[in-house]
Design goal:
- It is a single chain.
- The protein has helices at residues 7-16, 39-45, 48-51, 56-78, 85-108, 116-125, 127-130, 144-155, 160-167, 191-199, 233-263; strands at 28-32, 35-38, 132-141, 182-183, 210-212, 215-226.
- By secondary structure, it is α+β, with helices and mostly antiparallel strands.
- It folds into three domains: 7-83, no CATH class; 90-131 and 227-261; 132-226, Chitinase A, domain 3, CATH 3.10.50.
- The longest helix has 31 residues, at 233-263.
Length: 287
């Protein structure tokens, strides 16, 4: 069965390749003026998941995309876009994020393997939760002070759904914060929220404020029910290992960041923050 290579993969790769160095004639797969795409670059930069399945037509589509991108790039340089300060700032940000992500990925290599034994142990410790699904409502806000204030109002008798509609940043606010039934692992990307939600035992029970990378959550248990068929480890092993993988990555990231913070001088001045007003784009002269 043929596999389609996403256009974004082709476009990103096409924009990242090409050199102006002298190369053997037989190695030059394509050329635009002085810039050459070599066979070695082509082979080295195709993602492994696509390398073995590319058809000749797909390979030529890649080459044509590289040519089109190079033509646009060269024209942008001729018109002075590389001297535009906003574009230079964006390129710097891309470089910053690329290097940071590459460093992080290399730090994770060999440290995030989840053994079958670990997954089985976690399942055994949480087996009742894997045989249950829950319905919750949630409120997401951007600051802990706001979350604490809302939690106090809820404990004082305020209506959770109304507060969700008024204050929550999550799309579920339109429904009063209510989500569909979820199972263990459905919120693997935010383990703090999932753990807190499944720790609630009685409908109407409210969690404490939950902090994660998206902000600050408050969760309310609406209903809890048993699955019609008991879950076996073999049925959920992939789900369990993914949950543990996310948790392991988070732990490694936090230790890494704590170590880097300890060695750095960091200052933050939140009082200087103001509503963002972007400067108008000014096209380079001569374009």
């Amino acid at each position: 069965m043929n596999r389609t290579v996403p256009f974004v993969v082709v476009a990103i790769l096409a924009s990242s390749l090409g050199c102006k160095e002298d190369v053997a004639k037989g190695d030059a797969l394509a050329r635009v003026d002085d810039t050459i795409l070599t066979v070695q670059e082509f082979n080295a930069d195709i993602p492994l998941e696509y390398a073995m399945s590319l058809t000749p037509v797909q390979k030529m589509a890649f080459v044509q995309t590289w040519i089109n991108t190079e033509l646009l790039y060269q024209e942008a340089i001729r018109q002075g876009f590389d001297e535009d300060r906003r574009i230079a700032a964006r390129l710097k940000q891309i470089e910053r994020e690329l290097l940071a992500n590459e460093f992080l990925q290399r730090e994770l290599v060999g440290k995030t393997n989840i053994s079958i034994q670990e997954a089985q142990l976690f399942f055994q410790q949480h087996e009742s939760e894997f045989n249950t699904e829950i319905k919750i409502a949630q409120i997401l806000v951007s600051s802990q002070d706001t979350a604490n204030a809302l939690l106090a109002r809820i404990k004082g008798g305020a209506d959770f759904a109304e507060l969700a509609k008024q204050h929550s940043l999550d799309p579920s606010r339109e429904a009063g914060g209510v989500l569909d039934y979820i199972r263990r692992g459905d919120m693997a990307s935010t383990p703090e929220r999932e753990d807190a939600a499944f720790a609630l035992k009685k409908p109407g029970q409210i969690s404490d404020v939950i902090e994660n990378r998206y902000g600050y959550y408050i969760v309310k248990l609406i209903a809890r029910r048993r699955l019609p068929k008991p879950a076996k480890f073999e049925d959920v092993s992939d789900r369990v290992r993914n949950m543990l993988l996310v948790r392991r990555q988070k732990e490694i990231f936090e230790v890494l960041i704590d170590g880097l913070r300890a060695k750095a001088e960091i200052e933050v001045h939140p009082e200087l923050l103001a509503p963002y007003s972007p400067a108008p784009f000014v096209k380079p002269e001569g374009s």
